[in-house]
Write a structure and sequence with these properties.
By secondary structure, the protein is of the alpha/beta class. It is 37% helix and 20% strand. The strands form two sheets. Strands 1, 2, 3, 6, 7, 8, 9 and 10 form an eight-stranded mixed β-sheet that branches. Strands 4-5 form a two-stranded antiparallel ribbon. Helix 5 links the parallel strand 9 and strand 10.
Length: 249
């Protein structure tokens, strides 16, 4: 019995489950987002500010790391953004900002870019104030996640999807990271109720977050089991139909 208990409680780096009745695997793992295979989700701000060189976007943020790793320059990144945003509605011009871009797009705007042939979904989850500080909320995150799964199911590819603990860093959410992880998982299952986004979905937790914020993969494994086995897909289909919004052309 002691040996079995030790084996059950051994350190683990990932947990996974399949959604009941669906060929979709959900995984939570400790790792580096950029080393995972699949289409990756990166959160940005609604103004799509990109200036890492002058500190508007922190170089050590996920967006900053993405920019440095996949683009030769911020200007190259901006060219991709401008091409993808050309069909999206500008909600306002923010002339009170002291520096950076001024065109604000809708919260939850999703676009695709493919630097080096790798697919990324960029999602606007936070507003920037006049001082360039990102501001969001847990309700905003939930709204943006719904829009993301809707977009991917209708306008995206079927590649495996990889997502970090979106909003847990510079979006300044006060919500605990384990709650964010659970909401990402729950919302994805809801998003798959009507249409299939992919066959594998991975939530990646950075080693620093795992150590500093008392995250527990055993607890998340139990949550995965519950959501994958007991969620009422017919009820979720109705919710998805009621909440769904058409993706942008």
């Amino acid at each position: 019995m002691a040996i079995w208990t030790f084996w059950e409680r051994r350190p683990i780096l990932s947990v996974s489950e399949k959604i009941a009745g669906r060929d979709i695997e959900l995984e939570v793992k400790i790792g580096n987002l950029f080393q995972e295979k699949g289409a990756k989700i990166i959160s940005l701000n609604t103004i799509f500010d990109t200036d890492v060189d002058n500190g508007i976007i922190a170089e050590d943020s996920l967006q900053g790391q993405f920019t440095r790793k996949f683009y030769k320059s911020v200007q190259d990144f901006d060219k991709d953004l401008d091409a993808q945003l050309s069909d999206h509605h500008v909600t306002e011009d923010v002339h009170s900002k002291k520096r950076g871009k001024t065109k604000r797009y809708e919260l939850g705007t999703v676009i695709q870019v493919r630097p080096g042939g790798q697919l990324f979904y960029l999602v606007a989850i936070a507003n920037l104030n006049d001082q360039g500080v990102a501001q969001s909320s847990f309700d905003n995150l939930k709204f943006c996640l719904r829009k993301t799964w809707k977009y991917i199911s209708e306008c995206g590819e079927t590649d495996p999807i990889v997502i970090p603990l979106t909003g847990s860093g510079r979006a300044r959410l006060t919500t605990k990271r384990i709650t964010i992880a659970q909401e990402i998982i729950r919302s994805f299952v809801e998003g798959c109720a009507s249409k299939k986004c992919c066959e594998k979905f991975t939530v990646v937790i950075s080693p620093d977050d795992y150590r500093k914020h008392d995250l527990n993969l055993y607890e998340l494994r139990e949550f995965l089991k519950f959501v994958c086995k007991y969620e009422d897909l017919e009820r979720l289909k109705q919710i998805a139909q009621m909440q769904g919004e058409q993706c942008s052309p």
